[in-house]
Design a protein that fits this description.
The structure holds two protein chains of two kinds. By secondary structure, chain A is of the alpha/beta class. In chain A, the strands form two sheets. In chain A, strands 2-1-3-4-12-11 form a six-stranded mixed beta sheet. Chain A is globular. By secondary structure, chain B is α/β, with parallel strands linked by helices. In chain B, helix 6 packs parallel to helix 8. Classes of the chains: A alpha/beta, B alpha/beta. At the A-B interface, helix 1, helix 2, strand 7 and helix 6 of A face helix 14 of B.
């Protein structure tokens, strides 16, 4: 039995697409495996301490809220990169949080928002919002969610996406890829929220967090029944398939 | 001359659309009219001798305008889109089918408000609140607020702009009358999870709340720049809430104070009644007329409904976004908490394609008292997951996407003389209404008189 320590960044500001659903799924699924999940809110005045958290979570916000935290978060870039990239903590960043972890965001009117530079990508606002159900094929199996973003995110040459878009827009509506993976860190536009209907992804994050906690190999959880999860996934994936290819 | 011919053509279509059962014929003639002559709506509005009033908000606009209609009916013959057809086409249809009306009382969709204000040029505008709602359709809250700001600024001088001062976004639009609650005894201990406008509209610092009532609505002040709730011209004090049964409050106005009794539950209906009172007052109603009208009022179609079915009570409460659903849950739990509930989540365009909002609803207090919940609607499985991860035992959750079967299952689980709570999203509510009407239990909405 371990206590998995989650650092939830700016939950008061970044919570627009029901991010707490993701946290609820992590907490229950950890508990069903006999582990505790301890979630600490990390706000404007809180520092990121090396080794203090096994999993970081950054949610999505409206433009205004995202701007309010961007500079503060950029000031903690070194600590966060140290904790995740060098320290091996797991990370999930969704939508606005995903954009903030790249090098920066340029708004539609040219306004610049600094990023953390943890993920090898950049985002520029487009004219039309990309909205709808999405289905991906990833190394962890198919993933279904909902996207709603004005940003077009470009991965650097050689960067690893989370998955290939089967239906939906993805990072920029053009490349055919969605999200970004770097070690134990995942960034994605998919909400819905993401984890309830994609329990394999939730378990993977918990396994990575446990590896950080214990300093050993990531454990492989026994699967849970997950019948409801599979049904919800099927409906969501069906919505995406009905939408067709990237359009 | 041309307008008359267009009206005749559009009306013929309305009759036709009702005949073929395509609904109440609410928006088709308006759409046709807009196509025949885009400026017709402006001229139809200009024909109203007493002018028009517009009501918009994320939550409560249908109920609020129906309350205002009840107050104003003895004074004016109304052109009122009471079925909730609140886009430009619905407004046009209402104006079209209201010969001899004196006053237009128009509920308006948040996104359609700028165009309706520009074209109808109402003499009074009531703006109630902005909550996160259907982000896939409306976009972010800030965007709507900014469009409202521009639309309000462009109104002719002398327009009565009535604002809910308790909403920081709405209260800062610049109005002529401000209303709000003034009774910290009914405040929540803290802001709810889904609270939206928590940061100062001027400087971005988190507001401090002396009292938080519904979502982010309350008595706020920015500790940094001092931006605060405007002084209230009209307020509700000594608020009494009695579960699902009723609510009452003191309506405090410069000209006096009156006790208002509502046959409707919940703090959100106190906001609706207060808004309706402020609007009716701006249109000339006295406090006595307001108290009488609100006392006569029963719920707007489908928002809250109680129907007897086979010796059981069916209670329907519309849920459509986190703030509204939280109030429905709070009202239920503060009355007699239900043991059985049917919750129906559809994802048609009118419900919002993106169903993530259910995770922002504080369902937990409701779940704590439930023996059994039936998850229904096109996204029943997602809803079931929400309840599972909300802590409800999987054995207590039944998934039945089909609304008719879900309703029957809910009734079957309800003991004789008991109460079944049904919480549907918008299109699920309409489908349930049709179902009940087909069984002879409720009238079709266009057959109702008030």
């Amino acid at each position: 039995v371990s206590t998995i320590r989650v650092g939830h960044l700016y939950p008061d500001y970044l919570n627009i697409y029901a991010d707490r659903g993701n946290i609820a799924v992590l907490a229950r699924r950890a508990a069903w495996r006999g582990h505790d999940l301890e979630v600490t809110a990390l706000g404007m005045d809180d520092a990121i301490e090396p080794g203090a958290h096994d999993l970081y979570y950054v949610g999505g916000g409206q433009d205004r809220e995202q701007f309010l935290v961007a500079e503060n978060l950029a000031g903690k870039a070194e600590a966060l990169i140290g904790a995740v990239v060098e320290g091996g903590a797991a990370l999930l960043a969704v939508c606005g949080g995903y954009q903030l972890l790249g090098r920066g965001y340029r708004g539609f009117h040219g306004e610049e928002m600094p990023g953390v530079g943890l993920l090898p990508l950049e985002t520029v606002a487009g004219e039309r919002r990309l909205i709808g159900d999405v289905l991906l094929e990833t190394d962890l199996g198919p993933v279904a969610g909902f996207e709603n973003h004005a940003g077009r995110t470009r991965l650097d040459e050689g960067a690893t996406p989370l998955g290939r878009v089967v239906s939906g827009f993805g990072n920029d509506g053009e490349s055919g890829f969605e999200g970004c993976r770097l070690g134990r860190a995942i960034g994605t536009y998919l909400h819905g929220p993401l984890l309830p209907r994609n329990p394999r992804l939730a378990d993977w994050l918990l396994e990575q967090a446990l590896a950080h906690r214990t300093g050993g190999e990531a454990p492989a959880f026994e699967p849970l029944p997950d019948d409801l999860e599979a049904r919800a996934f099927e409906v969501s994936a069906g919505r995406a398939r009905a939408r067709g290819g990237r359009s | 001359m041309r307008l008359a011919a267009e009206i005749a053509a559009a009306r013929a279509i309305a009759g036709l659309s009702r005949l073929v059962g395509a609904g109440a014929g609410m928006t088709v003639p308006g759409k046709l009219l807009s196509k025949l002559d885009p400026a017709a709506i402006d001229r139809l509005a200009a024909r109203l001798p007493a002018g028009a009033a517009a009501v918009s908000a994320t939550n409560g606009k249908t109920t609020t305008s129906a309350m205002a209609a009840e107050i104003l009916r003895p004074r004016f013959r109304l052109a009122h889109n009471r079925s909730g057809a609140n886009l430009v086409s619905g407004v046009a249809s209402t104006l079209l089918s209201s010969d001899g009306a004196e006053l237009g009382l128009l509920e308006v969709d948040e996104a359609a408000l700028p165009e309706v204000l520009r074209r109808v040029r109402p003499r009074a505008v009531l703006l109630g609140n902005l909550f996160r709602d259907q982000l896939d359709r409306y976009g972010e809250l800030e965007l709507i607020a900014e469009r409202w700001r521009q639309a309000v600024a462009a109104l002719p001088a002398g327009t009565a702009v009535i604002l809910n001062a308790d909403d920081p976004q709405v209260g800062s639009l610049g109005g002529s009358v401000y209303y709000g609650l003034d009774d910290p005894s009914v405040a929540r201990p803290s802001l709810q999870h889904a609270a939206d406008s928590k940061y100062c509209v001027r400087c971005g610092t988190p507001y401090r709340y002396r009292a938080a009532y519904v979502g982010h609505l309350g008595d706020y002040r920015c500790p940094s720049c001092g931006h605060a709730r405007p002084a209230l011209d009209l307020s509700a004090r000594s608020i009494e809430l009695e579960g699902l049964e009723r609510a009452a409050f003191d309506l405090v106005a410069p000209e006096g104070t009156r006790r208002v009794e509502l046959a409707l539950p919940g703090l959100y209906n106190v906001y609706n009644a207060l808004g309706a009172a402020a609007l009716a007052r701006a249109l000339g109603a006295s406090l006595d007329e307001i108290v009488d009208g609100l006392g006569r009022f029963s719920a707007a179609f489908g928002r809250f409904e109680r129907i007897a079915v086979d010796g059981k009570q069916l209670v329907l409460l519309l849920i459509k976004n986190p703030a509204g659903a939280n109030e429905a849950v709070r009202t239920l739990v503060e009355g007699r908490p239900p043991r059985v509930a049917v919750v129906a989540l559809n994802d048609a365009i009118a419900d919002g394609r993106d169903v993530s909002w259910i995770w922002d609803v504080d369902f937990e207090p409701l779940l704590a008292g439930l023996d059994r919940v039936v998850a229904a609607g096109s996204r029943a499985a997602e809803l079931a997951l929400r309840f599972k991860y909300g802590g409800l035992d999987e054995g207590s959750i039944e998934v039945e996407a089909d609304l008719a079967r879900a309703l029957d299952r809910g009734l079957q689980l309800t003991p004789d003389g008991g109460e079944l709570v049904v919480l549907p999203t918008y299109t699920a509510m309409l489908a349930l209404q049709r179902l009940l009407a087909d069984r002879g239990l409720a009238k079709k909405y266009w057959e109702r008189t008030a």
